[in-house]
Amino acid sequence: MMLEPSIDSLMESINSKYTLVTISARRARQMQETNKYLIDSFDSKKYVGIALEEIKEGKLHYKHEE
After folding, report:
1. Residue 54 · residue 27 · CB < 8 Å
2. Residues 38, 43, 44, 49: is their CA dihedral positive or negative?
3. pTM score, two decimals?
4. Which residue in 2, 9, 10, 51 is a FRET match for 58, CA 20 to 30 A apart?
5. How many structural domains compose the chain?
6. Domain housing 47
């Protein structure tokens, strides 16, 4: 079973697996509460999967502050 989007393609946008997991989990909770999405069509049936698809499409970003 191949997961889509792949971790390699997601790591091009966000270079930390920890950050990737944190952002997708926060976004999943937000989608669950608001039922609003940043992309029009998606393959996943779960909120975390949709969040990962949003990251892959470049619709979800984060700002790294030092």
Report:
1. yes
2. negative
3. 0.85
4. 2
5. 1
6. 7-56
